[in-house]
Design goal:
Layout (H helix, E strand, L loop, with lengths): L2 E6 L4 H23 L5 H10 L10 E8 L2 E9 L6 E8 L8 H15 L4 E6 L4 H9 L3 E3 L10 E6 L2
Parallel strand pairs: 4-5
Antiparallel strand pairs: 1-2, 2-3, 3-4, 5-7, 6-7
Protein name: GNAT family N-acetyltransferase
Pfam families: Acetyltransf_1
Keywords: Acyltransferase, Transferase
Length: 163
């Protein structure tokens, strides 16, 4: 089986389904850890609807979708602010597709998009409980840095120079 990674419009049905899966997983994980419950369905619908993904539409960003054997399996976004570092966001692979190299492929594809747009560095933030994500970023050459934003759930910040 093989992976492919291609740009996708943020509002497409595939992108919307991946955003819902991503948000459900990270939200449920936070609530289970901190409150012993899953995300309230009304909150889930409100938060999913509030994020259009417009920040990942060209020319200021890109949403990439990974498919495994043709099936949508994951995504990664890259924001491309003018004059600043690129920002990696929404890195996600469906649980049933993990362990097959898709996450690293998505991150590298996002780095390629950032390089092609002229970015010399890429940054990201993540939560403390997302230990798999932190391990992935470290393995791919990202280094923890001082905070570069004040995002509400950000607990760890990473950066990588793009050669």
């Amino acid at each position: 089986m093989t992976w492919t990674v291609v740009p996708e419009q943020p509002g497409s049905p595939v992108a919307s389904a991946l955003w819902r899966a991503y948000y459900t997983e990270v939200s449920d994980r936070w609530y289970l850890l901190h409150e012993g419950r899953r995300t309230d369905p009304e909150e889930l619908e409100r938060e999913v609807a509030a994020e259009s993904g417009a920040d990942l539409a060209p020319p200021r960003g890109r949403l990439l979708v990974a498919r495994y054997a043709g099936e949508p399996a994951g995504c990664a976004g890259v924001r491309l602010p003018p004059g600043g570092p690129a920002e990696l966001t929404r890195v996600f692979v469906h649980e049933r597709m993990r362990g097959r190299g898709g996450a690293a492929l998505l991150v590298r594809a996002a780095e390629d998009v950032a390089r092609a747009a002229g970015a010399r560095a890429i940054v990201l933030d993540t939560r403390g409980d997302l230990v798999e994500a932190r391990a992935l970023y470290s393995r791919l050459g990202y280094r923890e840095t001082a905070p570069h934003n004040t995002a509400p759930y950000a607990e760890h910040w990473f950066a990588k120079r793009l050669g």
